[in-house]
Amino acid sequence: MSDFKILSQLNSPEDLRKLPDxxxxxxxxxxxxxxxxxxxxxxxxLASNLGVVELTVAxxxxxxxxxxxxxxxxxxxxxxxxxxxxxxxxxxxxxxKGGLSGFPKRSESKYDEFNAGHSSTSIxxxxxxxxxxxxxxxxxxxxxxxxxxxxxxxxxxxxFNNAGRYAKRFIVVLNDNKMSITKNVGAFAKYLTKVRVNPxxxxxxxxxxxxxxxxxxxxxxxLKVIQRSTRNVKRMAYKNTIFENFGFTYFGPxxxxxxxxxxxxxxxxxxxNGPVLVHVxxxxxxxxxxxxxxxxxxxxxxxxxxETGESPQSKESFSSVFGEYMCDIAQNxxxxxxxxxxxxxxxxxxxxAELYKERFFDVGIAEQHAVTFAGGLSAKGMVPVFAxxxxxxxxxxxxxxxxxxxQKLHVVIGIDRAGIVGDDGETHxxxxxxxxxxxxxxxxxxxxxxxxxxxxxxxxxVYHTDSLVxxxxxRGGELYRPKDYTEVSVDFDFYGDLSxxxxxVTYGRLFSNCCKALEILKEKGKKICIxxxxxxxxxxxxxxxxxxxxxxxxxxxxxxxxxxxxxxxNSELSELxxxxxxxxxxxxDKFVTHQTVNEALKELHFDSESIAKEILEDK
Length: 619
Ligand SMILES: Cc1ncc(C[n+]2csc(CCOP(=O)(O)OP(=O)(O)O)c2C)c(N)n1
Ligand SMILES: CC(=O)[C@@H](O)[C@H](O)COP(=O)(O)O
Ligand SMILES: [Mg+2]
Fold this sequence. Notes:
The chain is α/β, with parallel strands linked by helices. The chain is 42% helix and 15% strand. The protein is built from 26 helices and 17 strands.
């Protein structure tokens, strides 16, 4: 085991820039060792981080951060950046409550230029930063680092299209590892393969450019000449790269594990009068045998054994139950289509993809497209089911509204990771989908608590509901289920003492915690009743009516207060002239930071002890 001799001495990128080049390989191996060590304990995005070690070193070596800016796309690959920017001593706290975030965060460090977590933002954000600098007369560089899969997200292309027109001192580093979480898909991925396998012309061009740039004074003039002449040569004999057609100067493909080659490219890029794209080729998982062999598993992994590469097997989850249900119905119903936006394994559609190839669509990181595409499938009689994490569905607000609900097209959304997700933190919490969809007409939402309820809700959504219909379920598996609880209706159930004057209304997995609270309260001599909503929009009015008899109602909701189902429930009660008291416990106008799911639920007073305490102590 290393004592991180070099790494531990680097308090800032300035220290890195003073290191002799001969020490950089040893530094990189120390970084890799630390990455493996810390992710094996805390979990995290190991494979992507292992792939960008040399790239991150080369960036901080050649750009004067924080004077120059680095903007990371998604930011799941920023652990080395964190270690090199004065946070090595805190790296063991990454993704833990109160510790470093697993993503760049402006409030954490001046080196984190822009918060991330969702993909394809770095070109737009970088361009904004770069243009602000231009207006202020700031001559520093801005570098956006984006993966090959994130580059295919619609927003990247919007930013790229815009940047090519006028950006200066703006460099996009395309980190091409041929992978998204699984294999990168689509025409752009194929295009990159072509560029990668036929680089001889580009190499020649880069070499010439570098030679000319070394000539003092005449350098940039010479570069212009060579650029113009290569453009002419290309016109005659070779295809332009797509990047050049967008107005960028292209350097690449460059070995992303060779610091010297990257340094040369970055220095050359600095001299170009206009936007530059540096295409680096890296290996996801580089330097750890298990991650190199299986980058999909090591993209985002829970704690694991370093020697064997084994991670505790996950039990049956909502995602796997969803996936099985999809396979079951697809067998006899050729209208069923499964859609994912680059999250096939995460949402449980792996088996469906194998069995029903012609009806499975991995559209890449393209949530907006996925929804409108589903609308098109539906318009011609298919039954599309788009499985997507709650947090990423946020991207498709208008598509859900304008392209689906408004047209009453039957599209089913499987909203995975609904509710608190845990250590990915505020960028990934699934706590906004309900407020978003609650305001949409022609929309139905189910939010079951158990696997059995998930299957019933999906069946209802696929076969007995029109227009836009969402079924939302949490990350991981089932929580506590009382032995005497049976799910009766697909819309709602009462559980507990119906003669009590106190009712908890809830939905989704919070029902489990409410049941535990019921038991705590029972032991203390207080009997309560729970209304478990399964269909949360439109609200089952019979359930609202049946709640009228309770003097005190507590509505527990693992989502935002504004736009909540609790608020809708309250309106319905008011309409009926309810005379009792309703108290809403939901997430009140704040973002929930990274920590375990249980820690977050406790912080939000959604744990069973807090629920019981609230009811006991409430006057
Ligand atoms: C909008 C959005 N959709 C999906 C994701 C989930 N996601 C995180 S990383 C990733 C793959 C990114 O691939 P790439 O950009 O090539 O980076 P790599 O991991 O290969 O380094 C995906 C799909 C996300 N973060 N944001
Ligand atoms: C970075 C990113 O957006 C994904 O990799 C995400 O972290 C996956 O989350 P799960 O671990 O819940 O699949
Ligand atoms: Mg990639």
